Amino acid sequence: MTAPLPTAPSAGGARPAANTRGRVIFASLIGTTIEFYDFYIYATASVLVFPALFFPNATEINAILSAFAIFGVAFVARPLGSILFGHFGDRIGRKGTLVASLLTMGIATFLIGFLPAAQGNFTVLAPLMLVLLRFAQGLALGGEWSGAALLATENAPAGKRAIYGTFPQLGAPIGFIVANLLFVGLQLSLTAEQFQSWGWRVPFILSAVMVAVGLYVRLKLVESVAFTNVLAQKKVEKSPLAATFKHHWRPVLAGTFIMLATYVLFYLMTSFTLTYGTAETEEQARAAAAETGTAFDAAAFVPGLGIDRPLFLTMLIIGVVFFGIFTVVSGPLAEKLGRRRFLLWVTAGILAFGLAWSLFFGPGTGAAMAGLIVGFTLMGLTFGPMAAVLPELFPANVRYTGSAVAYNLSSVIGAAPASFVAIALWQAGGGNTVLVGVYLAVAAVLTFAALWLTRETRDVDYDNNVA
């Protein structure tokens, strides 16, 4: 049974009511801030809490890998979410779909805050419940980003799509900063036992407040001119997914690889650096072994930077400030230079950064701070234009589905394995991170090739581009 379609405006009727600039900015920004906040608190907890809480009987490194494996479950769910929410976004409209995705994400995140530890009767059940809720998070995020991107760009004035497209993108650094400030504050104000017992739950439970605000704002939206034009021309696709892959598979493929380097860079800069940066140095590990009277196994030990977790979280927050600043900077540059030309230069920078990775993330807090600033600056420059680039590859009647599928297929090959692969490469290198940088460089080469083979989309007729 298919959902009823909204009524199209009559040919001689008045132009549909427009969303005000402030409403567009806030609704696109608050939604992605909440979505990424929810995602980031899971990522941070995966490093700080979940290995011991849900995998108490595993070795330390296996517990970390298990937590990251569940982290990756969301990336399997995201393409399914892009199909589900994309279908309704292209058939019944952007507004209702955005509300549904936000509600799904909010409920799943809230419930994670009440999960029991894996002990007693919950030894198996607790990790399974975490997997299911993580799947729901991924399902929701699969539909959220594209809806927010379309909300911003389909309501943008002429010549400002890339600028308006930075609004939802800015939710990523803001969500990250809010999430990690909470974790830093909790770790500094609570004992280790309090944080492990209940403190980690606070950010998950508090997400309910932000979800309520986001829902209130989104319920006040009206549909965009681009979607009402689809209705007026009776061009709503019965099966947006089938139409996308039948007629627009090349843009899907191009968009998937255009996002690849962005995804790999982001998850290396956040999840992996937090694991590597806070892992003990050999000197710290030897001292700890001597203090407890245990033997130190040098052959099995993989050294990190040995930076205290609160300090490294603070360093990450500083780096993400640059992420936010350069996300805003990227919009006007992508309008002036064109999306393709601008992103080719930025991707070349990511390639160079990958090749120089071990120079930044070797011994020393100062070098790591510099690496975080450079990496997050590149992240802002590459991520900012994506909310304009990917939707512009598709006509309006399959735009939600097409951009969502490309974005989330890229998450499967780029984001999902990034932390897991990086940790494996770090271990294989015996603590050396050269191979981690090579991994990023390879992703940058693939993205550069996709951009090189893709046309410029700055001047497409966005409102009237209906297949």
From TrEMBL:
It is found in: Cell membrane. Keywords: Cell membrane, Membrane, Transmembrane, Transmembrane helix, Transport. Pfam families: MFS_1 (PF07690). It comes from the Bacteria. It is a multi-pass membrane protein. The chain crosses the membrane at residues 64-86, 98-118, 124-142, 163-186, 198-217, 252-269, 311-330, 342-361, 367-393, 405-428, 434-453. Residues 24-458 form the Major facilitator superfamily (MFS) profile domain. This is MFS transporter.
